[in-house]
Specification:
Peroxisomal Thiolase, Chain A, domain 1, single chain, alpha+beta
């Protein structure tokens, strides 16, 4: 009987644009304030990609280049690249194809996956299965979103929420008892009513009327989404702990989707995770949608140790939500790796 192949994250890369939009600047654009945003959402600033002609593929390519450099991986070694995004450069070709072209990845096939804010976690689960098949050795998952492209900066309820950014991870067959251990993923399509983009798809193609009505921006019924997110993200995070016989003391790091500080706090509390073991950077990046989880992993990478237990959790439009249990595969101290 063949041994089971497990996939492990063996490297992380990230990118955020240089331009920063602060709450004070937003307060001059719409009727809001730094105090109001911090109290309700927990975001102080967000990075915005302002350069003309640059979109999600540019940021994704920047994150992938850093990932390849840090892991000393040649673009020719990559077998597959999956791009998690809700803001593709264009409807086709796939943003993943553009990222491969920009980074010199020529021996891989690539495609996009869209599950709203859960896109990265769903893509990670998909990539795991390719590694487990035994046919693929090196798979990149990149989460990248230019949310500023679909944000209405005259809507005080949604414009403080989002930022732009990208993060990427490399998956390879695991060596030893580490890697992606388990996951639980869910969707509930009835949730589309409360969080979606009204126009731009095949049901309601772009017209002068849809543009004038601002139907190409994020539409959200905040209270309903908040309620669903708190319940489902907390439930699935507790469920994966119980399924894998993990106590709160066993969890080294909780890595939550960075959508709202109150959602993060409520979920961590339900799991019994102490605040100092929760990865939080929402205050500096906002909700970067597909990029929130890999941005956290990148920022905390040098603090992670081989064998650490991580619980990743997410919630997004659709509705989509899920949780993943990862036993971290390496220790990186500066330039010294222990893989």
């Amino acid at each position: 009987m063949m041994n089971h192949i497990r996939a492990a994250i063996t490297g992380v890369g990230a990118y955020v644009p240089d331009d920063i939009l602060t709450n004070n600047e937003l307060s001059r654009m719409v009727d809001t304030s730094d105090e109001w945003i911090m109290e309700r959402i927990g975001i102080r600033e967000r990075h915005i990609l302002k350069e003309a002609g640059k979109g999600s593929s540019y940021m994704g390519a920047m994150a992938v280049r850093e990932l390849l450099g840090k892991t000393h991986t040649s673009p020719d070694e990559i077998d597959l690249l999956i791009c998690a995004t809700v803001t593709p450069d264009m409807l086709f070709p796939a943003t993943a194809n553009l990222i491969c072209d920009q980074t010199g990845i020529k021996n891989a096939f690539s495609y996009d996956l869209n599950a709203a804010c859960s896109s990265f976690l769903f893509s990670l689960e998909t990539a795991v299965r390719f590694i487990e098949s035994g046919q693929y050795r090196k798979v990149i998952v990149v989460g990248t979103d230019k949310m500023s492209a679909i944000t209405d900066y005259t809507d005080r309820n949604t414009c403080p929420l989002f930022g732009d950014g990208a993060g990427a991870v490399l998956l390879e067959p695991a060596e030893g008892d580490v890697g992606i251990m388990d996951s639980i993923l869910h969707t509930d399509g009835s949730g589309w009513l409360y969080l979606h983009q009204k126009a731009g798809g095949s049901v309601k193609p772009p017209t002068h009327a849809t543009v004038d009505a601002k139907e190409h921006f994020v539409y959200q019924e905040g209270r309903t989404v908040f309620k669903f997110a708190v319940i489902n993200m907390a439930d699935v995070s507790v469920e994966i702990m119980e399924k894998n016989h993990l106590s709160s003391d066993d969890v080294t790091w909780f890595v939550p989707h960075q959508a709202n500080m109150r959602i993060i706090t409520a979920t961590a509390s339900r799991m019994g995770i102490k605040p100092e073991r929760v990865m939080i950077n929402i205050d500096r990046y906002g909700n970067t949608t597909s990029a929130t989880l890999p941005l956290c992993l990148s920022e905390w990478e040098t603090r992670l140790k081989k064998g650490d237990n991580l619980i990743l959790a997410t919630f997004g439009g659709g509705f989509t939500w899920g949780s993943m249990y990862i036993k971290w595969a390496y220790t990186r101290n500066g330039s010294q790796d222990n893989l």
